[in-house]
């Protein structure tokens, strides 16, 4: 046997003896296997409680909802599509450029397009009569198949970002900083019939 093998056997025997002796003061040091070069870094620390995930880009994403009326329990979104992965079309109250309350959501398969019916878990609020009462917003799924705004990021409106270029094709530096985080959404009127 080689010297290295003998040392490894002796260390293993010493560890087994310490574990079986009832001595609780012997520390056990975890062994970390070396990681091959080029592996992904460890996951980032979770966001602070109450913080929403940063919006993500999906250049092929789109959502379009028409003005409509109904019983206040379902909404039809004429077109919704994510291309970066599975996602959700989320119906919210319109709250003047801030995310409103979530009224309901429906899952989207990657590349899905066409009408999507969203059954609301909270009916459309009574007395909704102003323009742009509701908003349909796209989110990407974090992989669990259930919408949770704390984990499923909204999709950036890449079309708006492209429109922020001036005549020379350069980014317009005079635009409002709030425009950087515009999300893929569509406001629409909803009348409870």
UniProtKB/TrEMBL annotation:
Region listing for Disordered, in residue ranges: 106-193
Residue ranges of every copy of the DUF7282 domain listed in the record: 61-157
Keyword Signal on entry: yes
Stored InterPro entries: Slg1/2_DUF7282
Signal peptide: 1-22
Compositional bias (Basic and acidic residues): 139-152
Record keyword Signal present: yes
The entry's keywords: Signal
Pfam families: DUF7282
Biased composition annotated in UniProt, kind: Acidic residues: 155-167, 175-193
Domain of life: Bacteria
Protein name as annotated: DUF7282 domain-containing protein
Organism name: Pseudonocardia oceani
């Amino acid at each position: 046997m080689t010297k290295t093998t003998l040392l490894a056997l002796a260390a293993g025997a010493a560890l087994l003896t310490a574990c079986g002796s009832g001595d609780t003061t012997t520390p056990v040091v975890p062994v970390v296997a070396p990681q091959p070069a080029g592996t992904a870094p460890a996951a980032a620390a979770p966001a602070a409680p109450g913080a929403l995930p940063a919006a993500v880009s999906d250049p092929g994403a789109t959502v379009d909802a028409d003005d409509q009326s109904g019983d206040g329990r379902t909404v039809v979104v004429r077109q919704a599509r994510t291309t970066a992965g599975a996602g959700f079309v989320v119906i919210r109250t319109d709250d003047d450029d801030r995310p409103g309350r979530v009224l309901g959501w429906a899952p989207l398969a990657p590349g899905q397009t066409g009408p999507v019916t969203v059954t609301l878990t909270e009916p459309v609020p009574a007395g909704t009569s102003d323009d742009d009462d509701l908003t349909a917003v796209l989110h990407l799924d974090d992989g669990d198949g259930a919408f949770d705004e704390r984990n499923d990021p909204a999709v950036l409106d890449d079309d708006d970002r492209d429109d922020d270029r001036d005549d020379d094709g350069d980014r317009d530096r005079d635009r409002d900083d709030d425009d950087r985080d515009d999300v893929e959404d569509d406001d629409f009127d909803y009348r409870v019939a």
